[in-house]
Amino acid sequence: MLAAELHLKTQGAIGVDGVGFSTEASFAYLDLLEAGSHSIANHPVVVEDLKPLRTDDRHIRGIIGGDFLRHFDVLMDYAHRMLCLDDTSVMQAAVKGSHIGLVKPPQTPEEATMTTRLIVPVHLSGFAGQRLLLALDSGSNALFLFKPAVYLAPRLLEAGHRDGYGADGVRREFSILTQQSMQIGSLNIQHVSFAAPVEFEENALTSTEDGLLTTVLFRRVFVSYAGRFVVLDAW
Fold it and tell me: Same structural domain for residues 199 and 110?
């Protein structure tokens, strides 16, 4: 484990929430965290087992989180396989597209120190006039709605079932919901399918958000943490 190689001294426990699970992990502080030419000193990190991720790619040693990225403007360019960080606001002026305002989630002071969630308001065709709050997430490969008891009847129907794995490595069953059109600001995306966990447990992640909006749905994603907006470029 990378934390052991770095001789990190854990400082206590912190809650970790994912799709369908809640658990605890330890946290520690790094003297310096660098990505390219950018660095942050005395940065907090969560120490947990990443075996599920390393099963897919043994080269993965850790995860860069929003607590680090929030110090910059961030461009995730999937078409060119690039992650760009900018602390000068130069990139913001060059990015074209509608600014979609982010919703600020309620957080305790401890949560605000360790996490930064990007909550995007969306509308689905099956929810006429109702705004849903989806957490923009680069770690998932599918769109999720958290509360199947609410979403399955009568507005969305099951189109099938599929097994999948969460960040905790546990295999779970998901309902695949009928396709919808999704409106995000002025952007309209047709024929999107959401998954919903068959067995649902309320946790900190799902108490505020209605689901997850995966970044792989888009060609490019620009995030301004300071400006509290995103620009989404669909494929």
Answer: yes
91 lies in some domain? no
Give the single-character DSSP code of 97: S
CA distance 55 to 93: 39
Which pairing describes strands 187-192 and 194-197: parallel, antiparallel, or unpaired?
Answer: unpaired
User: Among residues 49, 63, 53, 3, which one has the least CA distance to residue 28?
Assistant: 3
Q: What's the average pLDDT block by block, 10 residues per block, for the chain (235 residues)? A: 79 72 80 89 84 68 85 95 93 92 75 72 84 89 78 60 61 80 94 82 65 94 94 93
Phi, psi angle pair for 231, to nearest 5°: -120, 125
State the pLDDT at residue 168: 58
Residue 86 pLDDT: 95
What is the pLDDT, as a whole number, of residue 5? Answer: 77
In the block, which residue shows the tokens 């958000």?
209
> Is the CB of residue 199 less than 8 Å from the CB of residue 173?
yes
Instruction: Determine the residue type at 216.
Output: V
The pair of three-digit structure tokens given for residue 228, joined into one six-digit string: 């509290």
Rg of the chain in Å (alpha carbons): 18
Cis check for the bond before 154: say yes or no (omega within 30 of 0).
Answer: yes
Do 115 and 29 lie in a common domain? no
Range of the domain at 57: 2-67
